């Protein structure tokens, strides 16, 4: 699960000093608009440090008739503690083995490094198949796939980590599609292998283009859009022959309405593995921090995918994504009906509206299950993520 959590909330001016680590969302100007009275993106504790007395900040705001301000908060998430708490309340709780995930990233890093030096390098197909099989076994047992996703340790390992995350999400979605639509169980392992290999072609492309923060020119866009075919070339040269895997890799940027590439395929003409990869790739890419863009929350990414149902993405894949994540996906920061702010720790199978909520009260952390009788009067008022 991604660890960075930010949310925004309206706060009465008189309570601003109670949140020293929060920042103002907007600059607040003097009455004539000629100067910034209170700058945004600066922790409140730093703002008041330069004042003779902290209350001066409050008086300055109130003198302009401001009674409420919007603050941005950072919401820390201790993933290991969250896992431990979930294990206490749910004996079936299971995530993908962390050591296996680390091994996959290490192996992918080696493959990418070699491809960067030698575009004719053939990766060890047997090792990729072995890891894919082990990941498929783990995904089959995992009950909380988002808790299994990992963050890149450095910017240099983003693509490898992204490939691992996409393979895990793809395997999870494939598993649920098999249950919903009756696909052969082999779809899970094939989707995972495709996820491991789908971005290999990027290792052969200029890094300055892949990480360019400005809009790409026509030739640069053509180069970037060549990566699915490059990935297929590398996979085929290394001995991958399964057409389902190769076609999934080639078409993972196709879109349901035909607006994708390389062939502008539509709807069910897009291979099923490609349709799965499209959702998994989008979700993990949006929630990842990059040099050219900021990460968004799991809720924002989830909302985008659901809004693009039947335009960009396969409705069946979106349906299993929704049923597996819930309306408030794990990692989403929410405000409860009693005003408490918490983080969604896990979805509740078969219940989209009542997930398990992680609450931090001082030094104490606990998880409540909204579906339990003890919390029948509590509900999620709104999502706060940005």
TrEMBL record:
GO molecular function: hydrolase activity
Entries under Gene3D superfamilies matching the protein: Hypothetical protein af1432 (1.10.3210.10)
Keyword line: Hydrolase
PROSITE patterns: HD, HD_GYP
Domain HD: 159-286
Domain of life: Bacteria
Pfam families: HD_5 (PF13487)
All copies of domain HD-GYP, residue ranges: 137-337
Name this protein carries in UniProt: Metal dependent phosphohydrolase
Native source species: Aminomonas paucivorans DSM 12260
């Amino acid at each position: 699960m991604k660890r960075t959590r930010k949310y925004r909330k309206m706060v009465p001016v008189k309570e601003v000093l109670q949140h020293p680590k929060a920042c103002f969302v907007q600059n607040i100007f003097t009455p004539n608009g000629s100067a910034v009275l209170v700058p945004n993106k600066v922790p409140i504790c730093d703002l008041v440090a330069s004042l003779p007395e902290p209350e001066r900040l409050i008086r300055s705001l109130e003198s302009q008739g401001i009674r409420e301000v919007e603050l941005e908060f950072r919401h820390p998430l201790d993933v290991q503690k969250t896992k431990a708490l979930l294990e206490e309340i749910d004996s079936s709780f299971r995530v993908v083995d962390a050591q296996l995930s680390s091994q996959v990233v290490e192996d992918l890093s080696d493959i990418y490094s070699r491809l960067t030096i030698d575009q004719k390098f053939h990766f060890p197909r047997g090792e990729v198949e072995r890891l894919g099989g082990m990941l498929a076994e783990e995904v089959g047992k995992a009950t909380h796939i988002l808790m299994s996703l990992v963050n890149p340790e450095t910017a240099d390992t983003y693509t490898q980590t992204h490939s691992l995350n996409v393979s895990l999400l793809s395997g999870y979605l494939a598993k649920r599609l098999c249950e919903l639509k009756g696909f052969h169980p082999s779809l899970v392992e094939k989707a995972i292998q495709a996820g491991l290999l789908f971005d290999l072609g990027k290792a052969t492309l200029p890094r300055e283009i892949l990480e360019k923060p400005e809009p790409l020119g026509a030739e640069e866009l053509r180069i970037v859009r060549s990566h699915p075919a490059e990935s297929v070339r590398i996979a085929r040269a290394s001995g991958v022959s399964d057409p389902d895997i190769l076609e999934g890799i080639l078409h993972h940027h196709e879109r349901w309405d035909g607006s994708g590439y390389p062939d502008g395929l539509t709807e069910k003409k897009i291979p099923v593995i490609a349709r799965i990869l499209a959702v998994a790739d989008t979700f993990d890419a949006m929630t990842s921090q990059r040099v050219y863009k900021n990460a968004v929350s799991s809720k924002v990414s989830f909302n985008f995918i659901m809004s693009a149902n039947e335009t960009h993405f396969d409705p069946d894949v979106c349906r299993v994504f929704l049923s597996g994540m819930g309306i408030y996906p794990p990692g989403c920061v929410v405000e409860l009906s009693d005003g408490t702010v918490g983080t969604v720790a896990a979805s509740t199978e078969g219940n989209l509206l009542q997930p398990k909520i992680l609450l931090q009260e001082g030094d104490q952390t606990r998880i409540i299950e909204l579906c339990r009788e003890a919390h029948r009067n509590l509900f999620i008022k709104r999502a706060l993520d940005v």
